[in-house]
């Protein structure tokens, strides 16, 4: 699932299902963030292992807006630039729980399969 | 559920804020890019290298935008809008051709929509009543009298009402014309006396006020009236206070108790009065007297109660079974078919025959019939409607072929563009969607224009239909249903027309078209050739179909010409007719009637420009009265009576009608009331009863009289009349092909008491319609309270008889002209396209030495091939399809060679000329210019 960070990267390493999970969790932790902040956060927290490409990030954010899991608001960055800040909604919180439990179940299952000799 | 709703709400909101959304997204991505660049620079990369790397990482912003937008689910809508915009742009690029396409579609769709509106308004939903498909009208056949009567006596009505189970209820009615006087302006209007159970049965509540109450419908009940919507608006200014007014009808006061809604014209009347029938035993105060042919009397002033005690058979009164004066309508019970009702009526007829045959010999072989009102309306017009439907279908096909042709021409010129799109990654589905959207744009515009066209032309078309074929309540207009029809046609045509070139574009090899010089000349020949074959087939089809429609039109024209050439027996030109009805109250005696008409005719004859004036009881080809006849010395076998047509006429009638005298003399001043009763017969009668000898001096006697408004009045004690003259046969019925029956004429002076209701005929020089006002003036001078009504020229009356055939002829000619134009223009377009496609080729040929004439001949030859194929196919089609017209034809067979030859020659000649024009242009091409054309 991961490729070492470097100058040249392969696109789309993160499976779409987990992308939502990552974004939701990031927002749950970080409160209000704009797109770049979200991508950066994921990148740093995963020790450069996970890279979210813009090609996946923004469509995912749009989809989450449609579904009502996040809301977007205009704001100003530290560098005095206009940006859109995303925030988790209550529906988003619920979705996060759902995705987390789903993810844990899948991981546990995979682990079991791997561990069995 | 709510989540889904919330989602839809958010999506719709985003749709509204599309532009802002795009801006925000762009800005977001820009920011992202900048931040990434800054980070890279912070880690030590050079500025521009960082920028490049950032961009590379970012990917394709346009694609990103697209994908983001896709998330919102409006991608397909956006694509549709894109296609529409592109389609409009392409359409505007070649405006002449686009306009042509839209016009042609407008014609086809407009014609179909108009016809649909007519058929729907007049024949599918003509009546505004509840469950109109259960509405029936009854009639009875008396085989002995060779008579079909729509009238029944009150005892017969009661029998039908109480002794059948198939009907929910039966209502009785009498039609009559009354004088309505308000503010000294008399007007003659159609009225109807109805039994009290009528309104509840029909189920139409009054717009204002109430209907008749059961207790008002008894004999001697109060004089109340229900006013119709149109009358209310016309005479009373739609005044809601009419409910408190009394109005004057035939000199008596009636209280208005209600106003009926729009589109309610039951029995064709404008005002309804109670029938005052005692439904229990059929007795009543308003017995029509024997001598009144119109079956209508003045309301007996102050009458209360029946002069004849209930149950006593009063001859000529309500309890007389032989006095037939009401019409009967009703509703079938739910779930009962008309066949079942018919069977029950058959059984009842046998019972009645058994019970009453003695005193009523007419019951021998009695038949009682129930007729669905809807069937009665369309019966005669069915063949014409079928033909029209066929013509419309053919026209739609031709329209489709023509438009397909034009679109193919446009699309094949865009072969390169389509190939490029395919190379850039458009799927065939996407291309097809584009082409279909473009044709849908055309068909939508065409449908809209067609609806406008139909809306404008509908009144003209409706004016062609004889009024007797449309119920008075029918409303023919372009309504929502018609718009739906137009929209469906537009959708259908758009889809078909778009798919055809789309399929064709798929087959065209993309590489072929992209090659240098492709699209024209030899490079694009493969695609051009395929397109050419399709277009050729279309044109051949168009020509064939056009020929079929033209052949049909030609046959109808011939039929109509033959019909109008049938001899009438009189001269219909320059004659105007109108009716006058003298009320018994003011003209109680025969002498009064005779004096009025005599004076009126004298005055009218004296007017300058009047050639002759006369009075007659029944106008030819409009009204008809028959009478039982006894001929002295030729009494038929007992029980069988002869019937003859009868008219009461003033002496000047034959001269006014230009009916020739064959033998003997015409009526004169000597034939007055107290003198010898005389009669004049027509040739048909003379031939029938006195084939070998002269009829002059023979004696005949009239019996029971039947007329279209009041049958069954026994003329008791009618005298023997001496035949004094024989005149030529004159057409009696509206249908000029009907056999002329024996007829006898009686002088007005000798039957004055029955002649209150007469028609005045005036033959003049010049335009007859202008005389209506003059005659009305003379009538008013003699009697200021006397209105005239039903003014018609004799030519109009004659023309009415041709109704359905004229309608079919006119409409077919219309369709044929359209089809002709479309086919010819289609051929022109094809040849012109061929010329322009092959300009390069022509240049080469001419450079190699070919002459202009030779080149022209090539194209004309090709055009001729198409024409020949189309005409051959069309002839075959005509022979097969014109068989369907057989019911409407007269004097010409469905495969008349003259008509077919004429239509073929006309079409071929004009089509040849159409193909010659572009060929001539080809011949005149400058080879240098042609060679350079790509």
Description:
The complex is a heterodimer of chains A (117) and B (934). Helix content of chain A is 56%, strand content 14%. Chain A is built from four helices and three strands, in the order H-E-H-H-E-E-H. Chain A has a three-stranded antiparallel β-sheet. Chain A is globular. Chain B is of the alpha+beta class and 934 residues long. Helices cover 50% and strands 16% of the residues of chain B. Chain B is elongated, with a radius of gyration of 38 Å. The interface between A and B is medium-sized, with 25 and 29 residues.
Radius of gyration of chain A: 15 Å
- Measured distance between first and last alpha carbons of chain A: 22 Å
Give the low-pLDDT segments of chain A: 1-9
Unreliable spans of chain B are 282-315, 516-527
Instruction: Give the H and E element order of chain A.
Output: HEHHEEH
Q: Shape of chain B from CA axes?
A: elongated
The gross shape of chain A turns out to be globular
> Kindly state the mean pLDDT of chain B as a whole number?
80
Oligomeric description of these chains: heterodimer
What is the mean predicted local confidence, pLDDT of chain A?
Answer: 82
Number of strands of chain B: 22
> How many helices of chain B does DSSP assign?
27
Query: How far is the first residue's CA from the last residue's CA of chain B?
Result: 62 Å
List the strand order in the largest sheet of chain B.
3-4-9-6-8-7
Q: Which structural class is indicated by helix and strand composition of chain A?
A: alpha+beta
Helical coverage of chain A, percent range: 55-70%
Total strands of chain A: the figure is 3
Main sheet specs of chain B = 6 strands, mixed, barrel
Global Rg of chain B: 38 Å
Structural class of chain B: alpha+beta
């Amino acid at each position: 699932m991961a490729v070492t960070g470097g100058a040249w990267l392969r696109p789309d390493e993160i499976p779409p299902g987990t992308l939502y999970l990552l974004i939701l969790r990031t927002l749950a932790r970080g409160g209000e963030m704009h797109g770049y902040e979200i991508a950066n956060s994921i990148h740093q927290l995963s020790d450069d292992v996970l890279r979210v490409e813009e090609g996946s990030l923004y469509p995912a954010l749009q989809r989450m807006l449609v579904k009502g899991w996040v809301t977007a608001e205009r704001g100003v960055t530290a560098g005095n630039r206009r940006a859109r800040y995303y925030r988790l909604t209550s529906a988003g919180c619920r979705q996060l729980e759902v995705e987390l439990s789903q993810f844990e179940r899948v991981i546990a299952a995979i682990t079991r399969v791997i561990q069995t000799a | 559920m709510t989540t889904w709703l919330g989602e839809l709400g958010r999506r719709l909101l985003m749709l509204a804020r599309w532009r802002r959304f795009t801006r925000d997204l762009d800005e977001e991505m820009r920011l992202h890019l900048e931040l990434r660049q800054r980070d890279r620079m912070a880690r030590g990369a050079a500025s521009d290298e960082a920028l490049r790397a950032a961009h590379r990482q970012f990917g394709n912003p346009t694609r990103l935008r697209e994908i983001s937008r896709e998330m919102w689910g409006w991608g397909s809508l956006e694509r549709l809008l894109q296609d529409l915009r592109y389609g409009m742009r392409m359409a505007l690029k070649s405006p002449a051709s686009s306009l042509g396409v839209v016009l042609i579609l407008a014609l086809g769709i407009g014609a179909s929509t108009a016809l649909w509106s007519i058929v729907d308004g007049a024949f599918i939903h003509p009546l505004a009543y509840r469950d109109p498909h259960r509405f029936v009208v009854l009639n009875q056949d008396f085989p002995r009298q060779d008579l079909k009567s729509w009238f029944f006596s009150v005892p017969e009505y009661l029998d039908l009402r109480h002794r059948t189970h198939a009907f929910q209820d039966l209502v009785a009615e009498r039609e009559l014309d009354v004088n309505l006087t308000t503010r000294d302006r008399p007007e003659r209007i159609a009225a109807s006396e109805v039994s009290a159970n009528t309104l509840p049965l029909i189920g139409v509540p009054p717009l204002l006020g109430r209907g008749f109450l059961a207790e008002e419908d008894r004999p001697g009940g109060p004089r109340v009236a229900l006013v119709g919507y149109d009358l209310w608006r016309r005479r009373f200014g739609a005044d809601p206070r009419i409910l408190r007014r009394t109005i004057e009808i035939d000199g008596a006061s009636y209280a208005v108790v209600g106003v009926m809604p729009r589109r309610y014209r039951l029995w064709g009347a404008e005002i309804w009065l109670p029938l005052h029938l005692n439904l229990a035993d059929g007795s009543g105060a308003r017995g029509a007297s024997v001598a009144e042919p119109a079956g209508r009397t003045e309301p007996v002033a102050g009458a209360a109660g029946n002069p004849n005690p209930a149950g006593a058979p009063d001859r000529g009164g309500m309890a007389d079974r032989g006095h037939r004066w009401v019409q009967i309508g009703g509703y079938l019970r739910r779930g009962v078919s008309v066949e079942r009702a018919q069977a029950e009526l058959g059984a009842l007829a046998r019972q009645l025959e058994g019970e009453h045959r003695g005193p009523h010999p007419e019951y021998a072989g009695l038949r009682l019939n129930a007729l669905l009102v809807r069937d009665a309306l369309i019966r005669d017009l069915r063949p014409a409607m079928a033909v029209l439907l066929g013509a419309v279908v053919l026209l739609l096909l031709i329209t489709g072929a023509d438009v397909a042709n034009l679109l193919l021409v446009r699309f094949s010129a865009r072969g390169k563009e389509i190939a490029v799109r395919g190379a850039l990654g458009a799927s065939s589905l996407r291309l097809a969607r584009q082409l279909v959207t473009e044709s849908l744009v055309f068909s939508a515009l065409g449908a809209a224009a067609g609806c406008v066209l139909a809306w404008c032309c509908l009144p003209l078309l409706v004016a062609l239909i004889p009024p007797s074929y449309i119920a008075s309540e029918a409303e023919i207009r372009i309504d929502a249903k018609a718009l739906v029809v137009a929209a469906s046609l537009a959708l259908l045509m758009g889809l078909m027309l778009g798919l055809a070139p789309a399929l064709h574009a798929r087959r065209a090899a993309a590489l072929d078209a992209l090659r240098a010089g492709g699209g024209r000349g030899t490079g694009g020949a493969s695609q051009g050739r395929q397109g050419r074959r399709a277009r050729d087939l279309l044109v051949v089809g168009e020509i064939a179909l056009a020929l079929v429609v033209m052949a049909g039109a030609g046959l109808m024209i011939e039929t109509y010409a033959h019909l109008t050439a049938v001899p009438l027996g009189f001269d219909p030109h320059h004659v105007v007719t109108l009716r006058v009805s003298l009320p018994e109250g003011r003209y109680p005696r025969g002498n009064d009637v005779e004096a009025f008409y005599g004076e009126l005719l004298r005055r009218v004859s004296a007017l300058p420009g009047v050639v002759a004036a006369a009075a007659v009881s029944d106008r030819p080809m409009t009204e008809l009265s028959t009478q039982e006849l006894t001929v002295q010395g030729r009494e038929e076998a007992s029980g069988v009576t002869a019937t003859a047509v009868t008219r009461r006429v003033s002496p000047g009638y034959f001269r006014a009608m230009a009916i020739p005298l064959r033998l003997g003399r015409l009526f004169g001043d000597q034939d007055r009331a107290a003198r010898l009763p005389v009669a004049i017969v027509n040739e048909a009668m003379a031939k029938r009863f006195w084939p070998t000898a002269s009829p002059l001096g023979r004696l005949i006697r009239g019996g029971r009289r039947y007329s279209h408004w009041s049958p069954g009045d026994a003329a008791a004690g009618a005298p023997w009349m001496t035949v004094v003259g024989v005149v030529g046969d004159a057409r009696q019925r509206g249908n000029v092909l009907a056999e002329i029956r024996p007829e006898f004429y009686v002088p007005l002076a000798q039957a004055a008491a029955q002649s209150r209701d007469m028609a005045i005929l005036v033959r003049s020089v010049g335009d007859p319609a202008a005389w209506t006002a003059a005659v009305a003036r003379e009538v008013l001078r003699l009697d200021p309270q006397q209105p005239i009504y039903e003014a018609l020229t004799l030519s109009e009356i004659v023309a009415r008889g041709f109704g359905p055939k004229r309608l079919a002829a006119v409409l077919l000619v219309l369709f044929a002209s359209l089809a002709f134009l479309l086919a010819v223009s289609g051929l022109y377009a094809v040849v012109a396209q061929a010329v322009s496609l092959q300009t390069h080729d022509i240049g080469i040929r001419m450079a190699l030495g070919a002459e202009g004439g030779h080149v022209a001949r090539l194209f004309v030859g090709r055009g001729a091939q198409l024409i020949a194929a189309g005409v051959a196919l069309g002839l075959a089609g005509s022979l097969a399809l014109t068989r369907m017209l057989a019911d409407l034809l007269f004097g010409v067979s469905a495969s008349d060679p003259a008509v077919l030859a004429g239509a073929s020659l006309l079409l071929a000649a004009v089509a040849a000329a159409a193909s010659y024009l572009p060929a001539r242009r080809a011949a005149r091409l400058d080879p240098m210019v042609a060679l350079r054309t790509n």
